[in-house]
Amino acid sequence: MDGLGGALRAWRERLTTADVGLPSFGRRRAPGLRREEVAALAGVSVDYLVRLEQGRARHPSAQVAEALARALRLHDTERDHLLHLAGLADPQPGLVPTRITPGVQRLLDRFGDAPVSVLDAAWNLLAWNPLWAALIGDPSNWHGRDRNLVWRAFTDRPSRVVLTDAEHEQWRSGLVADLRLVLARYPDDPSLAALVGELNRTSEAFAALWATGGVGVQAAARKTFLHPDVGHLTLDCDVLVVQGTDLRVVAYTAVPSSADAEALALIGVLGLQTVS
């Protein structure tokens, strides 16, 4: 297992679909997961994963390296080795934690009937399960700032969430107040400071809310979605904070036996495919 490429191949080949919560369809010609499956789990392109495994790309970003470690279900020592092979140092104290613990990863794997995602304290999307992607829209094409929910809220990125004007303002106000608390906890994180600075320069609405000095925690709420094939459905949204990591686990659930529950189940069947 020489170099980053060899390590990635070896880790991929030892996994089964059952290890990562994917369905299995018959025997496979080669052991382990397919590159397409690992790429989807990590939210990277198949071409980029191929280049990493073949040694044509050697220095993934910290975000990509962490995503690969999660997708490959690496334990702590292996994850540290991956960072070393990629030429990345472990995050320094005082930065917003982005590492998903094995326990949180197991939650993602087991919540197959509920859309679940994991975000860091600064509202950067780190990981999600297939049903979350099917409900929200495939986030694997979101890169950089587009994976930050505050950025998306203030730069009018497409969203399937249906909000009234009042709900939209309340949502954005809550995000800004929450982000101010996060900045107070992590004042030395340059990425977080850059996000706040860029939002202040880019969005007049954000700048106005930031100037008020309000602080608070973004509360959970019921949310209505407009899915392109299923139509409207309303779900309960719960935000669970993982103690010791500041990770946010966001889960959507429907009232049992309701029309919304039936709609969510249909979305699970459709996955990311669209009905023509």
TrEMBL record:
Native source species: Jatrophihabitans lederbergiae
Span of domain HTH cro/C1-type: 28-79
CDD domains associated with the record: HTH_XRE
A Pfam family of this chain: MLTR_LBD
Protein name (record): Helix-turn-helix transcriptional regulator
InterPro entries, per the entry: Cro/C1-type_HTH, Lambda_DNA-bd_dom_sf, MLTR_LBD
